[in-house]
Amino acid sequence: MYSHNEYDFSLKHIHLQAMGKGATHSFMLIFIAIFAAFLAEKSSSSLEADFYKSTCPLAEKIVRKIITKAIVKDHGLAASLIRMHFHDCFVRGCDASILLDSIPGSKSEKLSIANNPSLQGYEVIDRAKAAVEAQCPQTVSCADIIAFAARDSTTLTGGAGYSVPAGRRDGRISNESEVLENLPFPTFTSTQLIQNFAKKGLSAKDMVTLSGAHSIGVSHCSSFTSRLYSFNSTHTQDPSMNPKFAKFLKTKCLPISKAAKRGLDPLVALDVKGVYHLDVKYYENLMKGKGLLRSDQTLVEDPWTAWMVERHVESPEVWREEFAAAMVKMGRIGVLTGNQGEIRKNCRVVN
Ligand code: HEM
Ligand SMILES: *[C@@H]1O[C@H](CO)[C@@H](O)[C@H](O)[C@H]1NC(C)=O
Ligand SMILES: *[C@@H]1O[C@H](CO)[C@@H](O)[C@H](O)[C@H]1NC(C)=O
Known about the structure:
By secondary structure, this protein is mostly helical. The protein folds into two domains: 1-202 and 330-351, Peroxidase, domain 1, CATH 1.10.520.10; 203-328, Peroxidase, domain 2. Helix content is 51%, strand content 2%. The chain is built from 15 helices and two strands. The chain has helices spanning 2-20, 23-44, 59-73, 77-90, 122-135, 142-156, 190-198, 204-211, 226-229, 243-252, 256-261, 281-287, 294-301, 303-314, 316-330, and strands spanning 218-220, 267-269. The chain has a two-stranded antiparallel ribbon. The longest helix is centred in the first third of the chain and has 22 residues, at 23-44. The chain is globular and about 60 Å long. The two termini are 41 Å apart. The model is unreliable at 1-44 (pLDDT under 50). One 2-acetamido-2-deoxy-beta-D-glucopyranose binds next to loops. Protoporphyrin IX containing FE is lined by residues 76, 79-80, 82-83, 86, 118, 120, 184-186, 188, 193, 207, 210-211, 213-214, 216-220, 223, 270, 293, 295.
């Protein structure tokens, strides 16, 4: 409705201006208006499924083949690639800024403690890009390759298949210091998570649905040990954590100071029921106090999100479809399209 009114207004505006001038001038104005509309359409044009069907018809197939091979060899990669898409999209939009290497005088996103050393999978994206480049030079963006890889990882781990709207362009900037101000912290409460996702145009429902990605993959102890040993001034242990689960985790993770002294930071499954299957067991865990991160457990502590968790437990099939839809929505955050940005030749460096 709003944009419709705006359109009416601009047409009237042009018309009024044109009336006062000569015929040539009014033609010029109409031409400019059409051209401006065309440009606006170009740069804000939304993503399209099958975007490469005429320019690189095999692109998605090539990516899928390489990603599948890599995940068959190393099952943990699926989690890495889904997380990579999330970390890319939340910082400067889905523009492959996550893939740029640092250059002298400018540290890139990869170096942020949110990504280093926990985020893996850069090499497999390099391989997919090289294979696509060999077929269609400088045609398929690195940002789209991440989105395809995240989709393939989703389906390979048991999630729903979905088509990926594409046409993203690659950004030219990657700045380490922008990462922590955009990504949510594992210590966030439900309210903080909702606010963080809202800044990216995602709802509380999207946030809860996407958190189901934590049904696969692992976390370093350092992301949650404060819940075990130094929660707050009145509770050494987070009371929302199942005590038996806490006891089990204490056998895996030392207090931060001791772990640091020994240079240890072990990995623990985000979902105690299994690391390779994308499913609603994550939500079942939460209802038993077995969420690993505080940001997981908080989803059932807050009544506003708790009913969403219960709903996912009750309808696993609905969650599967909603997860796919939420991935598509996340994949639209701040994208560059049309002639914005560029198509990198090598995902690690700007052209
Ligand atoms: C809701 C806010 C979120 C927070 C606070 C959060 C935080 C974290 C943290 C701290 C880790 C463990 C990192 C480590 O210590 O190794 C992790 C892992 C992971 N996250 Fe999230 N995350 C969130 C949402 C998401 C979303 C939206 C996705 C994707 C849709 C996602 C996908 C993953 C995956 C798959 C892993 C496992 C990575 C691996 O095994 O390599 N997370 N997350
Ligand atoms: C990176 O971002 C920070 C914080 O937003 C800013 O102060 C800094 O100038 C940026 N660095 C570069 C190289 O653009
Ligand atoms: C510590 O955490 C518990 C549980 O969340 C809470 O009830 C208590 O008020 C907190 N104490 C302080 C000092 O923040």
